[in-house]
Amino acid sequence: MAAELHVALVAADREVWSGEATLVVARTTSGDIGVMPGHQPLLGVLESGPVTIRTSDGGTVVAAVHGGFISFADDKLSLLAEVAELSDEIDVQRVERELERAKAEDDAEAERRADVRLRAATAAR
Amino acid sequence: MGAQLRVYKRRIRSVSATKKITKAMEMIAASRVVKAQRKVAASTPYAQELTRAVTAVGTGSNTKHPLTTEAENPARAAVLLLSSDRGLAGAFNSNAIKAAEQLTERLEREGKQVDTYIVGRRGVAHYNFRERKVTESWTGFTDEPSYADAKKVAAPLIEAIEKDSADGGVDELHIVYTEFVSMMTQTALDARLLPLRLEEVAEEAKPKGELLPLYDFEPSAEDVLDALLPRYVESRIYNALLQSAASKHAATRRAMKSATDNAGELIESLTRLANQARQAEITQEISEIVGGASALADATAGSDK
């Protein structure tokens, strides 16, 4: 049995990341879920949150995903998101400013987005 | 310089200026086509995965959803027309508008009331000039549509289809856009987007008759479908917007290329006419001088006697 799974993280307008991984942890609407090779076929709705991908060469990729789907079959895992960013694309200081502004303006949506980004960025460190 | 010659010279100057502009527009459009095509390619993985997922839920469960159920007596239909903000694109907009009008006519013959939704200033102007009712319109992003634009367009349409037709909702959603076949060919066509025919989607997703695995749905098939279908519609609208943008740029490029060619031909024939006029002027001057000289010679010859 293959000890790794092929992961494709795609946003609506681009492919964000793809490669081999041994474990993917994502947050669905009913809770966190970890997918390893050989998992049963799965199709779930993702919550906004960080997605952690443990790559087969031992590294970790963290991405902030704002809503979307996870689908897994035949050791191929697709993460579909309208908006997805890798943690190293996220500018922490900018996001912190955004978070403060969102809190000040009482914009729950923006606050949630900034929070997800920030968590993804800090989880990668 | 003769008056005739001056007129020709002036026309040549103005045509060359026009040619320069159309040439520049042609080149800009050519680079934008490439960019738009790249965007279409970049959005393909998402669209493919989404189609696969929709098929998986649609075939793997017997879930009913307003976006997939056919109304028994469809009474209202929405038509979404994708035109462009700017003209100078040959027959691009008129073809799209014509396709929308034919579709509207057909739907009305079938006894459905048609709500028109329009993207692009050209289409809006066309409908407003004829004082036809436009339910909703969007402008300002047709050259380079983003996914957020597609979401903006899709939201009221999905809302309308989820409502009952009695309270102002619609039963069907048709989309008219211009398919980008190649640099030379773009065809305006209409497609029924909603309600979804799951069998068609399924054919698109697995042409080789491969079997889909039995998925475990998280949290449930209904919830997944609920979340999935609007995204699918958005992604289809996004794809149509991108294709229309690419087609528009290709049409502009072609129109501007023929304008440039025409200007070149015009300059050539005007140059010929100008040369002819100049030559006629010279000939006339020479014959005037010769005539004058011989008249003078005749006069002096007479006085000598």
Automatic annotation (TrEMBL), chain A:
Keywords: ATP synthesis, Cell membrane, CF(1), Coiled coil, Hydrogen ion transport, Ion transport, Membrane, Transport. Its main location: membrane. Residues 85-112 form a coiled coil. One of its GO terms (cellular component) is plasma membrane. Residues 5-84 form the ATP synthase F1 complex delta/epsilon subunit N-terminal domain. SUPFAM superfamilies: Epsilon subunit of F1F0-ATP synthase N-terminal domain (SSF51344). It is a peripheral membrane protein. It comes from the Bacteria. Pfam families: ATP-synt_DE_N. It is found in: Cell membrane. One of its GO terms (molecular function) is proton-transporting ATP synthase activity, rotational mechanism. The keyword Transport applies. Belongs to the ATPase epsilon chain family. Produces ATP from ADP in the presence of a proton gradient across the membrane. F-type ATPases have 2 components, CF(1) - the catalytic core - and CF(0) - the membrane proton channel. CF(1) has five subunits: alpha(3), beta(3), gamma(1), delta(1), epsilon(1). CF(0) has three main subunits: a, b and c. This is ATP synthase epsilon chain. The lineage of its organism: Bacteria, Bacillati, Actinomycetota, Actinomycetes, Kitasatosporales. The gene is atpC.
UniProtKB/TrEMBL annotation, chain B:
Its main location: membrane. It holds the Pfam family ATP-synt. It is a peripheral membrane protein. The keyword Transmembrane helix does not apply. Keywords: ATP synthesis, Cell membrane, CF(1), Hydrogen ion transport, Ion transport, Membrane, Transport. It comes from the Bacteria. SUPFAM superfamilies: ATP synthase (F1-ATPase), gamma subunit (SSF52943). InterPro entries: ATP_synth_F1_ATPase_gsu, ATP_synth_F1_gsu, ATP_synth_F1_gsu_CS. GO terms for biological process: proton motive force-driven plasma membrane ATP synthesis. It is found in: Cell membrane; Membrane. Produces ATP from ADP in the presence of a proton gradient across the membrane. The gamma chain is believed to be important in regulating ATPase activity and the flow of protons through the CF(0) complex. Belongs to the ATPase gamma chain family. F-type ATPases have 2 components, CF(1) - the catalytic core - and CF(0) - the membrane proton channel. CF(1) has five subunits: alpha(3), beta(3), gamma(1), delta(1), epsilon(1). CF(0) has three main subunits: a, b and c. HAMAP family: ATP_synth_gamma_bact. PANTHER family: ATP SYNTHASE GAMMA CHAIN, ATP SYNTHASE SUBUNIT GAMMA, MITOCHONDRIAL. This is ATP synthase gamma chain. It comes from Streptomyces cellostaticus.
